[in-house]
Amino acid sequence: MHAWEIMSKPVVRVNLSTLVREASALLIRHGVAALPVVNADNQVVGIFTEADALRCGEHLEDVVEAFMTSPVKVVPMDTDVDQIARHMLTDRLRSVPVVKDGVLVGIVSRRDLLRPFVRQDDAIEAQLRSVLADYAGDRDRWHVHVTDGVAVVSGEFEDEAERRVIALLAKCVPGVVCTELRSQAPA
């Protein structure tokens, strides 16, 4: 597997003159650990990380060029993911920009490296379990299993109104295509 197969795109990026305040807001808004810093030709000249943002302190009106990490390691689109993972682990990186002919085209994060190992159904199932645990006050009331986007929720339901609530909660989880509720008597 190669970088181009797992990279995230489009990439949230900043330029050398972006204010630290704006770059920090982008990190938070998009839930990313780092923003590639590009020049006018869209070539990566640095990276602005969460650690860089913290190091800025009260210098929020300064530009990222003053605080970015540079030089930054980039990888071509055809780089093997094993090589990227080794590089990220060795250098303790959370993400690596991906380039084509020197131009930024994507970014590979640790999450991107993990994604191929987790089935989509597993991610849906985990999120649905979390939603139901929040609803139930962290009491483990239902068993959840997802196959091909079909969520099966089994356990005790107080009444028909609760069944409808559980079905609606499941429907709100991205990836759930349909929900089956199965009642089980208490043990």
TrEMBL record:
Keyword annotations from UniProtKB, A to Z: CBS domain
Pfam family, one: BON
Occurrences of domain CBS (ranges): 7-63, 68-123
InterPro entries: BON_dom, CBS_dom, CBS_dom_sf, Diverse_CBS-Domain
Lineage: superkingdom: Bacteria
Protein name: CBS domain-containing protein
